[in-house]
Write a structure and sequence with these properties.
The chain is of the alpha+beta class. 39% of the residues lie in helices and 27% in strands. The protein has a 5-stranded mixed beta sheet with strand order 4-1-3-2-5, with helices on both faces. The radius of gyration is 14 Å and the shape is globular.
């Protein structure tokens, strides 16, 4: 089936606002539905952590398009590997601002998966980043908050 999962982190530009995140979501959903890409994007403390899943060529094309986006810089590839099943199949893309979720739960997950109380995805290894994203996805699904309501 040739499915791949790519995880990367990057630094958000300092002037990035909620409107920018909504714009990222809108264009990501549109492009990803067409390309069969699923995934999750987290933003906090001036950093992004994103997971992309799909066919290898589409994941690669999507990542190359993302790294050209001027709303962030210094992308760091955390992992890119073949997978047998998707972990984020319910979303063509979902963006979560960690500041919109329960602070204590986010802090606990950050500590659990990185050893730091501060969200620093560029210091996570592939297993930590994936486990963090899975847990944040679960936390988001059970949260009463509406994140980036389009």
């Amino acid at each position: 089936m040739n499915l791949y999962r790519l995880i990367y982190s990057s630094h958000a530009n300092p002037d990035l606002g909620l409107a920018d995140l909504k714009n990222i979501m809108e264009s990501s959903i549109k492009n990803n539905q067409t390309d069969g890409i699923t995934g999750l994007l987290c933003h906090a403390d001036g950093m992004f952590l994103q997971v992309l899943e799909g066919y290898q060529d589409k994941v690669n094309q999507t990542y190359h398009r993302i790294v050209q986006d001027s709303r962030h810089h210094t992308p760091m590839l955390i992992s890119c590997e073949p997978i047998t099943t998707r972990a984020f199949e319910i979303w063509s893309m979902q963006a979560i601002r960690l500041t919109d979720l329960n602070k204590e739960q986010v802090k606990t997950l950050t500590l659990r998966h990185s050893g730091s109380a501060i969200f620093q995805p560029n210091r996570m290894n592939p297993r930590q980043a994936l486990a963090f994203m899975k847990d944040i996805g679960i936390l988001f699904q059970v949260s009463d908050d509406i994140i980036l309501d389009l």
